[in-house]
Predict the structure.
Amino acid sequence: MLFGLRLVSEAADLAARRHNGMARKGRGSEPYINHLAEVANLLSAATDGVDAELVAAGWLHDTVEDTPTTRKELAARFGARVAALVVEVTDDMTLPKTERRQKQVVDAPHKSPSAKLIKIADKISNIRARIPGDLTPEERDDLVDYVAFAESVVAGCRGVNAILDREFDDTVKLARSAL
Ligand code: ZN
């Protein structure tokens, strides 16, 4: 088993390899790894770097959803807690988008405290990516829609970490001012 910085850097390395060649939505098609770095860094900053497994799970949070990576593999390499956290924030991609989003809102209050933090960090990063300079009408609609969705999910995730809660609120304010 890996611990501390070794755990986090192995997680970053695997995430970079698995998401290689993928671009994220919004903000000039940034490499997907930028999203993972942002989420991991938000988690590390909000918890003052005391929870390496949480930060590792931040790096890996989209691997099961978007790449051929299994819970079993993550558990073997990073331990049961990291694997469980990633699975907790993994959407069932066989469901249509509307149902997936609805399920996120309904399930959010029942997630573990650490999974709630990953959810909030993920939503902060996804909103930020939707606030470039000049928004097209479609981008504007997408931002309005995503912020409303993110607020519903985060409503069920609040109260674990005040720094992350505030960061989310500031991000929503920024998004609203961009509209
Ligand atoms: Zn994500």
User: Anything to note?
Assistant: The pocket of zinc ion is lined by residues 35, 61-62, 122 (CB under 6 Å). The chain is about 70% helix and 0% strand.
